Amino acid sequence: NPLPGDIGSFDVKRDYGKKWSDASGHVGFILTDGVCISAGHYKVEVNDAGFRMKNGTALQNDFDFKTFRRYKHKVIKK
After folding, report:
1. Taking a C-beta distance cutoff of 8 angstroms, is the pair 70, 6 a contact?
2. CA angle 4, 9, 14 (to 5 degrees)
3. What is the tens place of the pLDDT at every residue in 4-21?
4. Who's near 48: CB < 8 A, 6+ residues apart?
5. Quick one: which of 1, 22, 63, 69 has the most CB atoms within 10 Å?
6. Tell me, what DSSP letter sits at residue 33?
7. What is the residue-wise DSSP string for 50-61?
8. How far is CA 41 from CA 8, 36, 37, 38, 44, in A?
9. What does the alpha-carbon distance between residue 76 and residue 26 come to, in Å, rounded to a whole number?
10. For residue 40, with 0-12 CB atoms within 10 Å meaning exposed, 13-18 middle and 19 or more buried, which class applies?
11. What is the pLDDT of residues 26-41, one digit of tens each?
């Protein structure tokens, strides 16, 4: 399950039938369950991109995020 701060992305190969195995589609930073911040056509906005199927707001060809990445930092001791 995604946590706040994770990056979610579409799976281009699976969702769009593309041939690139390492490409992702639209991405967003997860703010909370079902909500992200992402770049729209004209501005950066808080939206439910990537969670529309889950939230019940999907249009006909919408997909949800299938890939999530989490930054795992290393503690630097001084």
Report:
1. yes
2. 145
3. 999 998 876 655 555 655
4. 34, 35, 36, 55, 57
5. 63
6. T
7. T-HHHHT---TT
8. 18, 15, 13, 10, 8
9. 32
10. exposed
11. 789 999 999 999 987 7
Would you give the distance in Å from CA 56 to the centre of its chain?
A: 16
Of the CA atoms within 13 Å of residue 25, those in its CB half-sphere come to 18
The token duo for 78 is 């001084």
SS3 content of the chain, % helix, strand, coil (to 5): 10, 35, 55
Question: What is the total residue count of the chain?
Answer: 78
> If phi over 0 gives left and psi between -120 and 50 gives alpha, with beta otherwise, what is residue 8?
beta
Instruction: Give the span between the Cα atoms of 50 and 45, in whole angstroms.
Output: 13
